[in-house]
Write a structure and sequence with these properties.
This protein has about 400 residues and is of the alpha/beta class. About 45% of the residues lie in helices and about 15% in strands.
Length: about 400
């Protein structure tokens, strides 16, 4: 028989490290159940997946094809292809009237890659970083994996689900914070921060020496009012963005980060060591994507119509409570009057109406059991059909 020490040693080889043991996405269970229904011939309307149904802009695909025909795909500079960085800087000037030095722009492996670079360059292990609840789950999982402590602050309808300067400072007074991360438009709620709300939060963060990080991945998909970039309000903020959503390029894995000057070299050396550079073909395609905005705006109008159908249709089937669906392609609805458990609600809706949506527990450990996230990034025909199916299922 092995002695205890040897047994413990062997055990340590078969379990992941505590920080590597991050929770899975519940949405994956919904997707697996949907796949089973489809395998037996059912037609599921996928409102659980947070990605565009449309392909990348034709300009991006053509540029990638041309680069591929040349055959040689080399590493690029760690910070990205210079012309792409300049093109991103021009985007800030064109879209927001904000002047950004291309030297502050680093191309990343989607915004997911940008989070890792941002957190590593800005925070030490043990640092506390405020995020909102509901919120995008990988924020807290990545922070934890890197040894930081995510501090969840609940948002409510009292502030249109925005984190305020007062809420931030109250949490900071209890135990000091080193950072705060927000998204506008947000996932899962689709809510957006007004310019005043964003300015108030940045001012509070600055006054307390709290690093401000703005996830702007859903910019370009704003319906209620124009989204504000933190770049307009602060040169100390870290701004994260991606080609995944507005440009429909999820699988290309390309995004960017705007870093304050003081962090630029650290982000560059981290990227050199962690990934050398972002896939070259994706960078070439991303640069050309900016010339495909007209095509992407047509898709945005589809989302706008889908949003209208949901906002008008869901109350008719009894789903009267949802957060202001200002942007992105999400609507976050309170389903608690039908079922106390959103996972059970989503499961039954999938099995009986063949409509897949994501239970809120993925996004909100406090109140997620009462909410379901509907993604409306599909065709308008599918979204209209989904509302009809839900109506029949709920007997309306
Ligand atoms: C709020 C938010 N941030 C970041 C991401 C990550 O996107 P990507 O790494 O594809 O840029 C997502 C993806 O759904 C998201 O919803």
């Amino acid at each position: 028989m092995l002695d205890i020490a040897l047994q413990n040693k062997a055990k340590s080889l078969i379990v992941p490290s505590a920080r590597g043991n991050v929770p899975p996405f519940m949405v994956m269970d919904v997707m697996a159940a949907a796949a089973r229904i489809e395998a037996s011939g059912g037609h599921v309307i996928h409102m659980e997946v947070g990605q565009p149904a449309a392909p990348a802009p034709q300009t991006a695909i053509a540029a990638a094809r041309a680069a591929l025909d040349l055959g040689k795909i080399d590493y690029t500079a760690a910070v990205g292809i210079p012309s792409l960085r300049r093109r991103i800087a021009r985007h800030y000037s064109d879209a927001y009237g904000a002047e950004i030095d291309p030297a502050r722009i680093v191309v990343t492996t989607g915004s997911s890659g940008a989070f890792v670079l941002a957190f590593l360059s800005a925070f030490e292990p043990g640092d506390r970083v405020a995020i909102t609840s509901p919120g995008y789950p990988p924020y807290r999982h990545i922070l934890r994996a890197l040894g930081c402590e995510p501090v969840l602050i609940e948002t409510t309808s009292a502030t249109r689900h925005a984190l305020t300067g007062e809420m931030l400072l109250e949490a900071h007074r209890k135990t000091p914070l080193k950072g705060v991360l927000i998204a506008s438009p947000a996932n899962p709620t689709g809510t957006m921060m007004t310019r005043e709300a964003m300015a108030d939060l940045i001012a509070a963060a600055d006054s307390a020496g709290i690093r401000f990080i703005s996830d702007e991945i859903y910019h370009g998909l704003d319906y209620a009012f124009p989204a504000v970039t933190a770049a307009e309000l602060s040169s100390d903020a870290i701004i994260i963005n991606s080609f995944s959503k507005y440009f429909c390029m999820t699988g290309w894995r390309v995004g960017w980060i705007v870093v304050p000057e003081a962090l630029a070299r650290s982000v560059e050396t981290l990227q050199q060591n962690l990934s050398i550079s972002v896939p070259t073909l994706s960078q070439v395609a991303a640069e050309a994507a900016f010339d495909g905005r007209a095509e992407m705006d047509v898709i945005k109008h589809t989302y706008e119509e889908n949003r209208r159908i949901l906002i008008e249709g869901l109350p008719k089937v009894g789903l009267t409570e949802f957060l202001p669906a200002d942007g992105a392609f999400y609507l976050y609805a309170d389903i608690s009057k039908f079922n106390p458990d959103s996972f059970e609600f989503a499961k039954e809706m999938l099995q009986q109406a063949h409509v897949a949506a994501t239970p809120g527990m993925d996004f909100d450990p406090f109140h997620g059991k009462s909410f379901v996230r509907f993604s409306y990034s599909r065709s308008t025909q599918e979204i209209a059909e989904a509302v009809e199916r839900i109506a029949r299922w709920l007997g309306k």
